Amino acid sequence: NPVAIASLKEGEVVLDLGSGAGFDAFLVSPKVGKTGRVIGVDMTDEMLEKARENANKSGYANVEFRKGDIENLPVDDNSVDAIISNCVINLAPDKEKVFKEAYRVLKTGGRLMISDVVLTKPLPEELKNDKELLVGCVSGAILKQDYLELLKEAGFVDITIHKETPGFLQGYDLSITFSAFKG
Length: 183
Fold this sequence. Notes:
Layout: H1 2-7, E1 13-17, H2 23-32, E2 37-42, H3 45-58, E3 63-67, E4 80-86, H4 95-105, E5 106-119, H5 125-128, H6 131-135, H7 144-154, E6 156-166, E7 173-182
Parallel strand pairs: 1-2, 1-4, 2-3, 4-5
Antiparallel strand pairs: 5-7, 6-7
């Protein structure tokens, strides 16, 4: 998410939801510098192990990885300046809880900068259970207007969609890149 990375400043604390092997966290690390910090949260031991290994190998001293669930973040209240995430929230069963948790950990004025998959119309039942679509981040996706409404209900303001790209399921899915702020 180039929009997210470009907006980061030296000294900020950034949280990466669903950090995987750490790719996005490592891109962010130089932007926040030595006085900043990047926290990656992932729920899989294999990914955490790989991310920590990558961080040690490449000398990312300002990056740490924590085991956790994005619906119950292992992060203190009001401690994060920015949250980034790439194609992860749509996989969470309780998206409302994800956004409430994001709101909880952000400092006042903090921002959410996300790229995710949403739907433009409901998926037919047979597509919802398609394993290939689940892997492709589509079957867990919800309607765009419902997604944006959940953000508002969690307390986020100034929700801006920066980019929309049609997905591979013609007419059903979109990849959106957006930002939102904790008021």
